[in-house]
Design goal:
CATH topology of the largest domain: Trna Endonuclease, Chain: A, domain 1
CATH superfamily of the largest domain: BsuBI/PstI restriction endonuclease, C-terminal domain
Strand content: 15-25%
Radius of gyration: 26 Å
Helix content: 25-40%
Structural class: alpha+beta
CATH architecture of the largest domain: 3-Layer(aba) Sandwich
Order of helices and strands: HHHHHHHEEHHHEEHEEHEEHEHEE
Number of domains: 2
CATH class of the largest domain: Alpha Beta
Length: 358
């Protein structure tokens, strides 16, 4: 069986981020340079599912720039045989040091490519075997055809993503494809009562829209918007009549959150309402401990009961760098919610000094 064509390293580097959009779990493991070179070597040795040929991480570490340019079948076969030999002589400058094979195996392949369906692993080898065991999935290989037009490539990638990426990753990709994070158009937010408001374009507005149109509907019984502002502290919505009916005093001079939602529940007169303070995080500003203290003090002064308060930080996606940078600062007894996974929520439940769940 002839060896598959080897795509160039620049082509692989250009396509991996398209195949694995933001929101893909462990995305860094499958788009970084070492991932690019891992894919290249697997092509180089012919490790494609169905060819009965496999690769191992040491072949990535042993590859060199001069060898990577020798792409005839004879040159590739000779190097593949040598790379699996116990008596090989390594060139003076290989791509990586020998101990780099562990992160290639554990991060790039096992945590990255295999769960995503890009790489398959032999199941007939003991875990301690040194024999090569990894191969590229055939439908993944099809994404590296250099002759594909932009439209053909886009269609193939979209089909592959639908088959292999999680709902969260596809949701994130949908936002990007719509130009959501770069849109020049106003973001129209539909309130639970059917009214609409326009917000300026941008990621924060898109997260805000999702909080009101998706979070509120899923997690609150009878939601309504009491307060809504956007960056620059521009007030988009302020329901003074509802605030008066509930006996609340909203002071816009205070450090208010981005959104205040009220859940009237089954109690139409408002005596059993729940209030949710929401911070929308596109770059920074989660509900950390100090911010929670500020909001709590403001709420009590405004007439809120502590038992009626909830605090939420809303993000675009769990894989966003901003979430990873701020998650350790989230205050206890608050929650985190993600646009890309609207049916789920993370509760930061604390325990008080006597061991009772708060």
């Amino acid at each position: 069986m002839s060896l598959p064509h080897v795509p160039s390293i620049p082509l692989i580097a250009e396509r991996l981020p398209k195949i694995f959009p933001e929101g893909t779990e462990h995305r860094n493991y499958v788009v970084r340079e070492i991932a690019v070179r891992t894919v290249f070597v697997m092509f180089y040795v012919g490790a494609v599912d169905g060819n009965d040929r496999y690769s191992r991480p040491s072949q990535v570490t042993d590859m060199s720039d001069p060898q990577s340019e020798l792409v005839s079948d004879e040159e590739r076969e000779a190097w593949t045989k040598l790379s699996l030999s116990t008596n090989k002589d390594l060139p003076p400058k290989t791509w990586y040091k020998t101990n780099t094979r562990e992160p290639i195996r554990d991060e790039t392949i096992r945590l990255g490519f295999i769960p995503l369906g890009a790489v398959v692993e032999r199941t007939d080898l003991p875990t301690t075997s040194a024999k090569p065991r990894y191969a590229l999935a055939t439908d993944f290989v099809d994404l590296f055809d250099a002759d594909l037009s932009d439209d053909e490539l886009g269609q193939r990638i979209e089909k592959w993503q639908k088959a292999h990426l999680t709902l969260a990753a596809r949701s994130r990709l949908h936002l990007v494809r719509q130009g959501a994070t770069r849109s020049k158009d106003a973001v129209v937010v539909t309130f639970p009562n059917g009214e609409t408001r326009s917000m300026k374009s941008g990621k924060s507005s898109l997260i805000t829209k999702a909080v009101i149109e998706q979070y509120a509907i899923r997690f609150l019984k009878e939601p309504t918007v009491l307060w809504l502002s956007e960056s620059g502290k521009k007030v988009v919505e302020r329901d003074d009549s509802l605030a008066r009916r509930l006996g609340l005093r909203i002071d816009p001079s205070k450090a208010l959150p981005d959104i205040i939602l009220v859940d009237l529940g089954d109690d139409a007169d408002g005596s059993g309402f729940l209030v949710v303070f929401v911070e929308v995080v596109a770059s920074d500003g989660p509900v950390h401990a100090h911010r929670k203290k500020q909001l709590t003090e403001m709420a009590v002064q405004a007439g809120f009961e502590l038992s009626s308060l909830k605090f939420l930080t809303a993000y675009a996606d769990r894989e966003d760098s901003v979430f990873k940078q701020t998650v350790s600062n989230l205050a206890w007894d608050t929650a985190a919610w993600f646009v890309s996974e609207p049916d789920n929520i993370i509760e930061m439940t604390g325990i008080d000094d006597v061991g009772t769940e708060r």
